[in-house]
Amino acid sequence: MRYKNLGLRRQHAATRCLSLRCRALLARMPGLEVKEMTAPEQCCGFGGTFAVKFEEISTRICDQKCDDIKASGAETLVLGDLGCMLNIEGRLRRRGEQTRVLHVAEVLAGVPGSEGSNQ
What we know:
With 119 residues, the protein is α/β, with parallel strands linked by helices. It has a single domain, classed as Rossmann fold. It has helices at 20-27, 50-53, 55-72, 82-94, 104-109; strands spanning 5-8, 33-36, 76-79, 100-103. Helix 1 links the parallel strand 1 (5-8) and strand 2. Helix 3 (55-72) crosses helix 4 (82-94). The radius of gyration is 14 Å and the shape is globular.
């Protein structure tokens, strides 16, 4: 297992990016340390066409999310929503951040190189 510190993000209440069940499963995985963000429920600013129509606002919202991720000290961010995942990872890369971004299924399935893997 390469990384221990997981930053968990829950999406806005409407769709729940990372459900409580997923969080409970991750918490039971040996060797993983879960680090909470200050505002895990805060939207990442994607919202489909919102990011296109209101690019500046969307970018500022995502920057706030990225700041929260960095402040958590997590090496890896785990999400359950692909739209949020693409938006946040893209912003992290444009900012030069090295935080890994994984879908919760990758971690739970033990995909090589993810937290659930022995590789």
